[in-house]
Amino acid sequence: MNTLHKSRQSGFTVIELFILVAVLIVAGVVAFVQINNLRIANQDSQRKTAVNAMYYALEEVYYKKHQSYPSSLTSATLPSVDPELFTDPDGFTLGKDILSQDELQKLVDKGNASADVQQRLGSLNSGKQPNYHYDATDCDTSGNCKSYTLRADLVSEAQYVKKSRSH
After folding, report:
1. DSSP H or E stretch at residue 1
2. DSSP notation for 18-52
3. Distance from C-alpha of 140 to C-alpha of 43, rounded to nearest angstrom
4. Nearest to 116 by CA among 107, 151, 154
5. What is the 3-state secondary structure (H, E, C) of 56-118?
6. Residue spans per domain, the chain
7. 3-state secondary structure of 125
8. Which of 43, 120, 137, 165 has its CA 20 to 30 A from that of 33?
9. Measured between alpha carbons, how far is residue 14 from residues 8, 19, 20, 36 in Å?
10. pLDDT tens, 77-128?
11. Is residue 7 helix, strand or coil?
């Protein structure tokens, strides 16, 4: 009796390997998108936290002491707020003079640029602008204002806005 023995090799076929690679690529893309979405949501959350801290300091501390609002907003104006909250995730600081892209580049070229200057230049080079805005209204000549609007530009949502209370 002559028996034919089929030689069977164990392993994966080319089609199975292609399917595996395709599944891994799809999983990688999904993971990348989710990580990016989480990063954006975290930055938006940081922006909202900063605006809320400034808002409550303006209303509960500054207004109660001065019976008005400041014409401009800096960390010196609101010492009860962590100074780091005045700097948005892109490196722009509310109330700080904004240097032009050329002025920032000159500082970098001279070697006089701090890490935040380099971050701001990188943000400007990629087309980003400051995220925090303080607009005082109804101000007298002394810089005392009756109202304001505090805004943060968000990435995944509409602009986050806080307005002064009616006193």
Report:
1. none
2. HHHHHHHHHHHHHHHHHHHHHHHHHHHHHHHHHHH
3. 36
4. 107
5. HHHHHHHHHHHCCEECCCCCCCCCCCCHHHHECCCCCECCCCCCCHHHHHHHHHHCCCCHHHH
6. 21-94+130-163
7. helix
8. 120
9. 16, 9, 10, 33
10. 999 999 999 988 888 888 776 666 777 777 778 887 777 777 777 777 777 7
11. coil
